[in-house]
Fold this protein.
Amino acid sequence: MSKLSIFMKGIIKENPVLVFALGICPALAVSSQAVNAVGMGLATTFVLLCTNTVISLLRKVIPDKVRIPCYIVLTAAFVTITQLIVKAYVHPLYLALGIFLPLITVNCIIMARAEIFAKKNRLFDSVIDALGMGLGFTLALLAIASIREIFGNGTWFGIELPVLAEHNISIFMLAPGGFIAFGILVAIANKVSNGRAAKLKESGCARCPAATACGKGGAA
Amino acid sequence: MEFRTLIIIMMSAALVNNFVLIQFLGICPFLGVSKQLKSATGMSIAVIFVMLLATAVTWPITIFLLQPNGIGFLQTIVFVLTIAALVQLVEITLKRFMPALYSVLGVYLPLMATNCAILAVVLLNINNEHSFVESLVNSLGAGLGFLLAMVIFSGIQEHLENADPPACMRGLPIALFSVAILSLAFFGFTGVVENLFG
């Protein structure tokens, strides 16, 4: 696989949020404003980049039996670093993301990329994979947040838009609006890919690449 | 007075700030494991069980170990490791001493280590500076809210199986729209708890 196709597949063909439905919780929770969505996306990309790099470097050192606990510890460590950096330099974002910043630790995208890609690929490929997946995650978040902020609040990145600012559909700023905006985007992704995306995420935990990581291949 | 505060905490966690429908926590298992009522209740009971245990373990660790030593910033790592180890211990113990309970909860336990609802509830308990009893009550409320949402949604899922939406809406999108309506219904609880018990 060429370097470019590794990078691009995370953005479109295997978009973690819209195609695999991974990391939905942060995608919905921080997407009422575009700024927060981008902040969350970049923080997750940074963590993903660090974990993919280290796991790829250590792929011959980590014993297969205890790889999941190793991944969890690594992720938690990098999340703590990210948390401290964000708290020190981008404090408003730290307050806006709140509990969802430490929750990057349990974002399934990170575990999934470690399990699917980083543990069996070379360093450079894993770095590209992390960048592609992180960017795909960020763009998906930005898309959800744009729908919610433009229609719910009449602004985009805090810039007031004409007409829309006077005619808010305020439900988009609330929790139900998050589900609706995400539902619309997944439906569009299904339509564009002619149902290929829908097939990938059929039925329960089996669709989740982290299912093998979870233990017994899921319950559903 | 004390009792009333506890009721308010529990009702807010279960209804007003429902973890799944209002706070977007634990959506993966919510969408994935709610196909049948039986698996939905099994999963929810496992969640309640692990939430209570995790709170009972992480609260003392934070208050007596991390905070006095000024290493509160390590709480993410410590909590994740504690929960992962706890889940393993519970699994082994149940398998050995309570096979009946294990047959109900067993398959769901490994999923708990990476469930964001569990980590969220223990983090929220610390962030909101709840006392030990308040933390336990908050966790119980959050777990019951999860159970309620799961049971309601498993009923909806069974009807969605028979529905015939447009091709691109099948599966996840139609489920998300149903969740949106359910979530809207839960907004009706806003203010109810304060007015009833406040």
Observations:
- Residues 202-207, 212-220 of chain A have pLDDT under 50 and may be disordered.
- Residues 3-211 of chain A form one domain.
- The first helix of chain A runs from residue 3 to 11.
- Chain A touches chain B through 58 residues (CB under 8 Å).
